[in-house]
Amino acid sequence: MKSIRDIYKIGKGPSSSHTMGPAKAMGIFVSEHPDAESFEVILYGSLADTGEGHGTGKAIEMMAGKPVKIILNRVDRDLPHENTMDIYEIRDGKRYGEPMRVMSVGGGDIEIQGREDSGIDDIYPENTFAEISSYCKSHGIRLSDYVVLREGEEIFTFLYTVWETMENAIHDGLTTSGILPGGLEVERKAQHLFNQRHMDETPTTRENRIVCAYAYAVSEQNADNGTIVTAPTCGSCAVLPSVLKYMQEKHGFKDIQIFRALAVAGLIGTLVKRNASISGAECGCQAEIGTACSMASAALAELFEMGIDQIEYAAEIAFEHHLGLTCDPICGLVQIPCIERNAVAAMRAINAVSLANFLFGSRKISLDQVIATMYETGKDLSHHYRETSIGGLAKLYRKAEPNGEN
């Protein structure tokens, strides 16, 4: 299993699969074809269906450095992955050589057909939560200790940068107002949520308001092409930082405790990526928001120094109750319902930890089972509900608009 560094990527929003991945692919192709006059890129599947809303073409053009023709192929569905693209070199106005076929598999990662994975090497010999749990219990260590054991002490330097970026995204989101780009005229709400105290605010109401304000802040930064950390994706980047930031302020946790919580969250996200998928185009929003909620619950349970079984139960509860969640972004933008979902999932993560604290001894379902179920469920979903914007909310919204226009 790969390093947790593969889960946490610092970059610009709004989509790890639709902007970060294609941009990375284009950069590789450009470096390998320095004599090209121009390029042609064909986007398939979800990349074609929502490429305009996600700004996929713009991300590709920025990396090309030369003229690039982008073709949206919304017909072909017999693909190696729902996010597939072909890149051609153009010479004398014609395609030259074989194309590079690329799959954007989620979280900003890509796979190039015909090439071995040149990414981060596997550093974890254990590949399931059951295996990890057994190892930790037999050696008397916590999950965060296990991450440090496999990654080395230098992982804390990396997590420091991750946390600093997450905090900056919250701050920037809370201090920015206005309308998000894309044409939906979605107004930023984080600042209003943070400053608008309820007329009869209880401690619980305040917690919900502040956690949601932090989640909206990060999600709105992502939607506005701001700098965020994938956790595990751009579209689900706000769940984990909003929960950790609020709890640090409420309970006074030190940064080193936050880093350990991030380590555990990264472990959960890596397990999902290894054994299932974090791609909304492949498995729906359950793969993104479901994973993010599970990561946040596990991180919070680590902060409260809960046992391994309790951490697993918290992560399992958070994940199980996102099973079947569709990915149907209106106009292909990471705004509706994506921003709100981050806030709802953040609150659910907190609730999952509370429930796990009381009931972990009676659980029947393992985290590994839920991860496997999520993958099977995602594969069974119609492609209409896997980041294509041709079903669900996106479809009904389009129908409700005058003349069917967005």
Task: Give structural notes.
The protein is α+β, with helices and mostly antiparallel strands. It has two domains: 4-112, D-3-phosphoglycerate dehydrogenase, domain 3 (60s Ribosomal Protein L30, Chain: A, 2-Layer Sandwich), CATH 3.30.1330.90; 129-404, no CATH class. Helix content is 52%, strand content 11%. It is built from 17 helices and seven strands. It has helices at 16-32, 45-49, 51-54, 56-64, 129-139, 143-151, 155-174, 190-195, 203-223, 239-251, 255-275, 280-283, 289-303, 308-320, 338-359, 367-380, 392-400, and strands spanning 10-12, 38-44, 68-73, 84-91, 94-106, 109-112, 227-229. The strands form two sheets. Strands 3-2-4-5-6 form a five-stranded mixed β-sheet. Strand 5 and strand 6 form a beta hairpin. The longest helix is centred in the last third of the chain and has 22 residues, at 338-359. The chain starts with 9 loop residues before the first strand and ends in a 6-residue tail after the last helix. The mean pLDDT is 94.
